[in-house]
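Appendix B. Extra example for self-study. Work through it before the problem class; the solution is given directly after the inputs so you can check yourself.
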Amino acid sequence: MSSNDAKSRAALRRLSPAASPAPSDATLEETLGRETPLVPTSSIAGRSLVIVIAIMTFLASLSAGAALMVADASVDWRREVAREASVQIRSAPDRDIEADVNRATSVLVAAEGVRDVRVYTKAESEALLAPWLGQGLDFAELPAPRMIVVKLDENRRADLDALRRELAQAIPTAALDDHRLWVERLGQMARTVVAVAALVFVLIVVAMGLAVAFATRAAMVGNREIIEVLHLVGAADKYIAQQFQRRFLALGLRGGFIGGASAMAFFLFSGYLASRWTATPDGDQLEAMFGSFSLGPLGFTVVGCISAAAGLLTGFMSQEIVFRQLRRLDGAE
Amino acid sequence: MLSFENVGLRYGSGSEILSDLAFSITPRSFQFLTGPSGAGKTTLLKLVLMSLKPTRGRISLFGKDTQTLDKDSVTDIRRRIGVVFQDFRLLEHLNLYENVALPLRVIGREETSYRAEVLELLRWVGLDERIASRPSVLSGGEKQRAAIARALIVRPELLLADEPTGNLDPTLARRLLRLFVELHKSGTSVVIATHDLALMEQYESARRLVLADGRLHVFE
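Solution. Structure tokens for the complete assembly:
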């Protein structure tokens, strides 16, 4: 230290009315080594923002999870349906239906790509009509069709068009249904559900971004004097923006964690409930729609990523908004 | 170090509140900036600090035209200037130690690297027993000393003090002036904005920059 420095500091010392004793170790311990955030915690509507982010993360996770479950279930539906075809042999006055069934079975067994052929017995075929025609009906007088279920080999694709033609030549009353219509409808429905979920997800993210933007702007207005002082003591815009980002990142991560954890708990609980209901009609419908109604490791990873992204998005957005606002303030000066 | 050339300032489409300001401040100089209340002393200091832009004229700081500076250069220049605000502008949510250390903290220095420096300065201004106190519990004099310590912690080349004795009794005001004189002798250029004639009379040899009716008159 130069002698001039010493002189000026001696003058500073003289400003003090009386010499003061050294600070106690306890005071030093409490005060030093910690850095109070430059953006005061109380100046941000922290709790409200955490709740908003938690709710948004929860909803975003729900929509993403539901989309994933439907997409997975749709793959299962389509795979299951595509593995199977059915042949219906209609009854005709001039034909022996049993002979037609046997002939059709022979054609099917000989066809390329057919793994298994199961002929529904007369009783089984009639049982299939029971839901429409009622129980206890005498089918002897009715021209009830017969059903043959064909299991297709996944590894060797069957030429269903050729098989259809071959069957039609051998048995005019035979009709091969490859369930293509169902597959297309299921696929379309699944795509619609996933698209709607994606739209909901995007809307939620936009709403969350707007909430963060409002909160950041409000925090900047509330801390305008602090920002001005920081500027005047030599803080760069980047440094100031980082102070806001740090506060908002912490809030965003907290909200994201709460929302994500709640969503995971929701999916786990729902999976548990669904497993308890599997034997009931409601449970069957749920399973038809969402498969096993369990999210799976990929789903939980996605929810975890959404939680982290909510925090990071909050921090990034607040920093960008502060940067932009500081530039605007500078332009206004 | 600092020069104003035909600087004028107006707000919006009103008339100029500062007109044709032309003066310079050389290194190691000492000056009072004076004039009646409302003459524009604080506004002039804001122009120096680049928190206001002149509507005409040229301000040069440390050899650079302030109109052409980018934000990083503005920040670099502000780090060479210490400011004591009329209303202290201590941050209420920080304790005294953190307030004084603020200019070092914002340039990214680690707390451990400046701890001894800040404690030493606080001891010198007699506030070492109040390091954990918030500004709200400090007296006007203590706040004043804390504001001065904050301005000095970066060892500025130019010190601007806006009505630094406004809240002090005459004895403390005299002590404060002695401090500024010592700082000036140690190589810092000092500009004290005040309308306290008694204060100025204690240092007759200082330059006087007198603002009146929006114009500046320099008395060497």
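Self-check: Residues 13 and 67 of chain A are 70 Å apart (CA to CA). If your reasoning did not lead you there, revisit section 3.
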